Amino acid sequence: MSIKDKFDIKGRVAVITGGAGLLGKEFARTLLEYGGKVVMADIARDRGAAALKEIGQGSKGDIVYEYVDVSSKDSVEKMAQSVKKRFGKVDILINCAALDPKFEAGDMEKHGYAFEDYPLESWERAVSVNLTGAFLCCQVIGRIMISQEKGVIVNVASEIGMIAPDNRIYIKKAEPEKKRFKPIDYPVTKAALIHLSRYLASYWGDKNIRVNTLTPATVYTDQDDELVKNISYRAILGRMSDKNEFCGALIFLVSDASSYMTGANLVVDGGRTAW
Ligand SMILES: NC(=O)c1ccc[n+]([C@@H]2O[C@H](COP(=O)([O-])OP(=O)(O)OC[C@H]3O[C@@H](n4cnc5c(N)ncnc54)[C@H](O)[C@@H]3O)[C@@H](O)[C@H]2O)c1
Predict the structure, then answer these.
(1) 96 C-alpha to center of ligand 1: Å?
(2) Which of 40, 43, 153, 186 maximizes ligand 1 atoms within 8 Å of its Cβ, making it the mutation to test the pocket?
(3) What are the structural domains, with CATH classification, of the chain?
(4) Digit-coded pLDDT (tens) for 6-56
(5) Long-range contacts of the stretch 119-126 (C-beta < 8 A, 24+)
């Protein structure tokens, strides 16, 4: 098989949790382009419908939306059964769903808490989605993959799961006294996902199920210029990323192109964690 052919995922069924989100949609487009059948599994029905409209239906219904709340085992089971009924199998799982309050208008109030005052319920909610959600999806879909004697799982982490957030980047020149923080739960759950991948790679090493992590860095959305400058400065490439700059790494990880790779963390961060 040629290297080019190894990237082909024709007929393979992929579940993307958080599939209606910013990166989930990009991943969905990529998997479709390489011949896959895609399930955008997401808690937000409205976003799911909009994403389907935006991407188009693919040929022969190759892309669908499924409701799931990844923090509920019952909901994950229902989603997995529905996918099995529709497509007969699950070859690929991408754990992308996350709670990640952005540093943008509308989300800013979530960044005002000092760690000492951080609400327990915020911590528990984020852990239940970002970490327990991936745990449950691996458990439920991993069982299907065991029965198929084949599967690939990608857990989507973050560069601040590898390094601590530098909270100085959120301080504005005009308001030096006003501190803003990346909430503790996000980097801690992302760090845990990297180890979830290693654990499961080791655990399923003899089951033909590969488990890896994809680590992206901050994507351009609606951040203000000051924040963009502060984050860009920390990347070797001197900029943040476009939303489609992780898709090459993603198709590598889910296809046979990475057949000898498991338990690894593929870091696509413009060099931010390299210095
Ligand atoms: N965007 C970035 O700059 C960036 C950088 C590094 C890592 N990441 C990671 O990439 C992944 C995707 O990020 P994004 O920017 O697309 O985020 P996003 O907020 O746009 O998408 C996340 C999706 O998860 C869904 N979701 C939330 N709770 C859920 C639940 N309980 N069950 C099912 N779905 C749920 C949301 O509805 C949303 O569609 C995340 O894991 C994030 O941590 C993003």
Answers:
(1) 6
(2) 43
(3) 3-102+126-162+186-223+242-266 (3.40.50.720)
(4) 999 999 999 999 999 999 999 999 999 999 999 999 999 999 999 999 998
(5) 122/183, 122/185, 123/184, 123/185, 125/71, 125/99, 126/99, 126/183, 126/185, 126/186, 126/189
